[in-house]
Amino acid sequence: MAVDEDGLVRDLGPLGTDIDGHFLSAEGLETARRALRTSSLAVVGHLEAGVVTLGTGERIGPPMARPGKIICIGLNYRGHAAEAGAQVPAEPVLFMKAPNTVVGPNDDIAVPRSSQQTDWEVELGVVIGSQARYLASPEDAAAVVAGYVAVNDVSEREFQLERGGQWDKGKSCETFNPVGPWLLTADEVADPQDLRLRCWVNGELRQDSNTADMIFGVHHVVWYLSQFMVLEPGDLINTGTPAGVSFGHDDIPYLRAGDRVEVEVDGLGHQSCAVVQAR
Fold this sequence. Notes:
By secondary structure, the chain is an alpha+beta fold. It is 13% helix and 30% strand.
């Protein structure tokens, strides 16, 4: 699906491919733009106030196919590092997240069995559009970014921090990466370091910040990652969360079944996920 300039949601099915790494690296985005300009694609819904509604009432899935890998940046906002009682890192803190954590923007978030500390994290997601290895400078990173998505990097803090080893255990539980509702192409984002991010839990605003508070900006992160691993088309980078999570605040409860989490990033739409108990 794609949203045209009039806010109409159109079916990309006739293009015959998923929005995956091949689509992103083979001029698929330009093909989709041309199809939208002709208005030949069927209208299946509409956009209003950042919320996509399908006329059929069908589920809205993630805006791109399952990524080959999800790379995440920890403690990348000054405010979040302060509330966590952590020093500002000298280099980006990296961890990986299982690709099958990705769900749609309105899908349920499942609190894991035995979990007592499931937390929310609104983030700016970066989708890679062409292979990147050993980029020469952060300035070269812009050319390999296909676009941006809203992400909720859901985290289980006990699994992450108290169960030994790496953070991945607290990050890779099922449903722990709602993405969408859409991917906004890089050329449509004037400045990725000037986007407002917000998160509400049960209607109460918990996070309200701007990507300007990032310690390491988007292009620096992409360049940095390319020094350690090859980034492939379709890979997703979660760039960190601002202040306002439950962790570090005794008066802000963690998520429980029956809660609702909403996240929003400027220009990238609105998510609304019910919290359920994993069976």
